């Protein structure tokens, strides 16, 4: 193993790095690969899933009742008349099933706490889980949207905003949200080739890569978080956004991979900047916000300037479900930018959307997102599948109905205990930060070297060790996969570990491996130092 040339890996792209690290870690059969490079959680919410499957059984029976005279296996649309009564009987007869009990409480909660029509809600859920109709409306089912609005307002720390002032588009996770938003911004001439956009770094790699594509050819201006400030954006960096040539600011909050939320001070600075630059567009991807304590989204601070992206994937362990939303206020800056386009551009866009309505100019940006997601011509079949929307609603209700927030406390505890196990075995104190979310951790090569063996050793490491090569050596010799922070725009040498997808003892093993490599490097350093004497 010692003869492997790891320098060949240093110039790979982030996704090539990931694939090669995994291949190297899997190259031996006498050990278990520990992939801490991927953010897919190994925990998930079970009760709303139980509810989903039980609702599916009830709904299928309802369908079969509609065509009871037909051959077995053929059903029809569920009947609204008497549906609530039959559902109540279903709940009473299945009090031993956790998912059914939750469903009964959910209908009561929707009625008593959210003030919604329980009959209409139940019918939407039954029809939705059967998937027997196109999504209507195509942007999001009506009652489902109202419930998810309530969830988003609560979880994103948004106070004082009426639900009717908010629009949601249910999408196939945060991934689809990114693709749809970039596309519609370009199609609607809000951004154009050569425009300057600011990106808060470090950040999820696609936010760095998509703007460079031939489709967009955007000039990137980096707003760099400072590790010495707990990965907060210095005011001097945020003030770059006062430059009127910067069209938009894209960020992930809490960040990926530093995994910290923006401080109240940072939020206040951004609010001040928006007052000076009411034309500034902000996109905030808040998928990790649900893991933070007392989280407040930029959407809560600058709602009319901000596109909010939220995904259910990480918090509920639902990456395979592909569930997310895009949120905009009714008074958003995008609709104002559409109204301010030139006559030529307006005419071109009216032609683009003319198949949808006789008044295409009146189509809001969020509805253009829906149309563009299906190349306009297929707008009538747009929208997230209705069973997916039902599962999204059940996830949201599960969280809102949990007055003790037991699930939230549990998942926060899981990732933080794993964080502690890794650093304990590494021999370094766990970074303490009230803004930390701990879904990921960045192991700083320089700081770790300095803490373990002193300043001179750390200086030697920085001059003589390539962190990417080190990660490949770790993968090769131990089977542990960590991703280089550089792939996310991290400027200092570091390794990103997801704290979501392995068990606690495995993170302790990762800490052991890193400590062993640090010790080997220190012995190498001592030999070189002795040789100089």
List keywords for this structure.
3 domains, pyridoxal phosphate, single chain, 3-stranded antiparallel sheet, Histone, subunit A, alpha/beta, Aspartate Aminotransferase, domain 1, 7-stranded mixed sheet, 533 residues, 12 strands, Aspartate Aminotransferase, domain 2, globular, transaminase activity
What does this structure look like?
Belongs to the class-I pyridoxal-phosphate-dependent aminotransferase family. Its EC number is 2.6.1.-. Pfam families: Aminotran_1_2 (PF00155). The structure is a single chain. The chain is an alpha/beta fold. The chain is built from 20 helices and 12 strands. Helix 11 links the parallel strand 6 and strand 7. The protein is globular and about 90 Å long. The mean pLDDT is 92.
Assign the CATH superfamily of the largest domain.
Type I PLP-dependent aspartate aminotransferase-like (Major domain)
Tally of individual domains: 3
Q: Which architecture name of the largest domain does CATH use? A: 3-Layer(aba) Sandwich
| Mean pLDDT over the residues | 92
In helices, the fraction of residues equals 40-55%
Number of helices: 20
Q: What composes the largest sheet?
A: 7 strands, mixed
CATH class of the largest domain: Alpha Beta
CATH topology of the largest domain: Aspartate Aminotransferase, domain 2
Strand content: 5-15%
Enumerate the strands of the largest sheet in spatial order, edge to edge or round the barrel: 2-8-7-6-5-3-4
Secondary-structure content class: alpha/beta
Uncertain regions spanning at least 5 consecutive residues: none
Total strands: the figure is 12
Gross morphology: globular
Radius of gyration: 26 Å
The separation of the N and C termini measures 30 Å
């Amino acid at each position: 193993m010692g003869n492997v040339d790891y320098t060949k890996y240093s110039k790979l792209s982030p996704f090539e790095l990931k694939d090669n690290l995994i291949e190297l870690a899997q190259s031996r059969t006498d050990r278990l690969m520990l992939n801490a490079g991927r953010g897919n959680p190994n925990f998930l919410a079970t009760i709303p899933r139980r509810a989903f499957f039980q609702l599916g059984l009830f709904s299928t029976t309802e369908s079969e009742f509609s065509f009871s005279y037909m051959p077995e296996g053929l059903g029809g649309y569920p009947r609204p008349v008497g549906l609530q009564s039959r559902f109540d009987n279903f709940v009473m007869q299945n009090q031993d099933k956790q998912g059914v009990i939750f469903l009964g409480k959910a209908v009561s909660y929707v009625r008593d706490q959210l003030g919604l029509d329980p009959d209409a809600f139940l019918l939407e859920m039954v029809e939705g889980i059967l998937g027997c109709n196109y999504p209507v409306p195509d942007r999001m089912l009506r009652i489902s949207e109202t419930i998810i609005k309530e969830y988003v307002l609560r979880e994103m720390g948004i106070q004082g905003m009426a639900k009717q002032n908010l629009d949601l588009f249910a999408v196939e996770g945060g991934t689809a949200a990114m693709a749809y938003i970039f596309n519609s911004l370009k199609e609607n001439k809000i951004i154009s080739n050569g425009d300057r956009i600011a990106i808060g770094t470090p950040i999820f790699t696609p936010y760095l890569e998509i703007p460079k594509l031939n489709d967009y050819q955007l000039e990137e201006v980096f707003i760099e978080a400072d590790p010495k400030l707990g990965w907060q954006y210095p005011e001097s960096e945020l003030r770059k956004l006062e430059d009127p040539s910067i069209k938009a600011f894209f960020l992930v909050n809490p960040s990926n991979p530093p995994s910290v939320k923006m401080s109240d001070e940072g939020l206040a600075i951004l609010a001040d900047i928006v007052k000076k630059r009411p034309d500034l567009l902000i996109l905030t991807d808040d998928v990790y916000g649900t893991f933070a304590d007392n989280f407040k989204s930029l959407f809560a601070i600058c709602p009319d300037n901000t596109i909010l992206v939220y995904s259910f994937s990480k918090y509920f362990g639902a990456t395979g479900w592909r569930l997310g939303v895009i949120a905009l206020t009714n008074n958003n800056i995008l609709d104002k930018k559409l109204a301010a386009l030139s006559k030529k551009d307006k005419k071109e866009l009216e032609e683009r959307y003319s198949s949808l309505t006789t008044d295409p100019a009146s189509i809001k940006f969020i509805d253009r997102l829906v149309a563009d997601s299906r190349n306009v011509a297929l707008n009538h079949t747009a929208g997230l599948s209705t069973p997916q929307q039902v599962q999204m609603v059940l996830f949201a209700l599960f969280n809102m109905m949990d007055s003790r927030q037991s699930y939230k406390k549990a998942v926060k505890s899981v990732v933080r205990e794993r964080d502690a196990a890794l650093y304990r075995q590494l021999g370094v104190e766990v970074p303490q930060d009230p803004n930390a979310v701990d879904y990921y951790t960045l192991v700083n090569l320089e700081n770790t070297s300095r803490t373990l063996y002193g300043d001179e050793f750390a200086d030697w490491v920085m001059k003589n060790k390539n962190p990417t090569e080190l990660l490949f050596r770790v993968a090769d010799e131990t089977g542990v996969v960590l991703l280089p922070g550089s792939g996310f725009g991290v400027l200092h040498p570091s390794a990103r570990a997801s704290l979501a997808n392995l068990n606690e003892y495995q993170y302790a093993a990762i800490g052991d491996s890193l400590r062993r490599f640090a010790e080997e490097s220190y012995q190498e350093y001592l030999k070189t130092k002795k040789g100089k004497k």
